[in-house]
């Protein structure tokens, strides 16, 4: 995954945590637990603020930036290069997404991934190869008469012209070599 | 309860020609009975008119009219006795041959309003000669001609079944008869009810809505939102298995049928809740969904089942 996607994933995770804490507040009876929950909520909102700042300032091309779990400061930082030295995720995990993102498939290689006989189902749209093996709309590795393992950029553009967000719901696994 | 009697304003309004004197009962059943009897009297005298319905069978398997006979609440009997006046249906009417087509032509000439329900695709090859509705005064009447003539004059046109909506199985590869959906030959609003066959409730529900409230709310593909709004996948009883990744390997297992090629995730219709044959069962109760109520059936829904993935 690109760093932008890692940050966005974190933002969504924090949103879910905030919702959980708000629900917890509804059921909490004693003042002590309520205050603790409110403190947690405050921390989460600060974390959100930081992540959103990070999202806006992160450049789009991949750059090794460590995702932060617990920000130690309250104020958001201006640029990613001024990050405090917090413990990073295991570096293997960071490097892998960027190299996986660069993995390229030729059309012949792509055709191998047609979902048959236990293989995964991949499709290519606009130069990016996506894994649709577990995508509900691609049951039996076919979608409205289209088979997996091919480039369906034209068909996607003609059918889902106003629904580009669909691509954001797919899992990319590489690029199509031209 | 029977001794007290209050003339409510709505009751007086409904039966303004008749004054209710005590001790008429005011239980729900008694009021419903009075209304029903009044409605019957008005039907007999001609004050309330049932609209006319023409059911045209074109290039199809006539599965939709068989499905219609299975209707329940309202039933088919109720439809033809109380809802509409079924003027023409080549499978169900008593007159045959020329006399049957006389009824159709008289309706066209009389300028009376009617609702047109079409099942089956329109065959275009050889100027429509691939599918004939009958022969009238020595001339063959092709499905293409009938669709155009009747479609132009009807107040509402309902395309019943996958074939009438977009060609369906009649237009499957290699489509030797050049069959197309009804919209391709009629340039007007058509209410589309895809399904193979169309569930009787979908047609009877749409017809009821037209009779009481006019045209129902339609989505972008002209399907009534009443029936065609949620995905089968979202209402499927096997959905939890899908989320947990527990998939059936054969049809006997009760888990999610995604890996076998179920088209529930791409089909928008209310099969999971309405089910079929008076709630006896439904496709996913036994096998995969083949997406029969989605546009593109059957070619774009193939393979119906796959043991390869």
Q: What order do the helices and strands come in, and which of them pair?
A:
The complex is a heterodimer of chains A (178) and B (309).
Chain A: H1 3-27, H2 31-57, H3 91-102, E1 104-105, H4 107-112, E2 122-125, E3 128-131, E4 142-143, E5 146-147, H5 153-159, H6 165-168, E6 171-176
Chain B: H1 9-14, H2 28-45, E1 52-57, H3 63-69, H4 76-83, E2 85-89, H5 97-110, E3 114-119, E4 122-123, E5 132-136, E6 139-142, H6 143-153, E7 156-160, H7 162-166, E8 179-180, E9 191-193, H8 200-213, H9 239-244, H10 271-274
Parallel strand pairs in B: 1-2, 1-3, 3-7, 7-9
Antiparallel strand pairs in B: 4-8, 5-6
Helix pairs in contact in B: 3-8
Overall description:
By secondary structure, chain A is of the alpha+beta class. Helix content of chain A is 46%, strand content 11%. Chain A is built from 6 helices and 6 strands, in the order H-H-H-E-H-E-E-E-E-H-H-E. In chain A, the strands form 2 sheets. Chain A has a 4-stranded mixed sheet with strand order 1-6-3-2. In chain A, strands 4-5 form a two-stranded antiparallel ribbon. In chain A, strand 4 and strand 5 (146-147) form a beta hairpin. The longest helix of chain A is centred in the N-terminal third of the chain and has 27 residues, at 31-57. Residues 62-100 of chain A have low confidence and may be disordered. Chain B is α/β, with parallel strands linked by helices. Helices cover 30% and strands 12% of the residues of chain B. Chain B contains 10 helices and 9 strands. In chain B, the strands form 3 sheets. Chain B has a 5-stranded parallel sheet, sandwiched between helices. A two-stranded antiparallel ribbon of chain B has the order 4-8. In chain B, helix 3 crosses helix 8 (200-213). The A-B interface holds A 115-118, 121, 134, 136-137, 139-145 and B 233, 242, 245, 258-266, 296, 299-303, 305-306, 308-309.
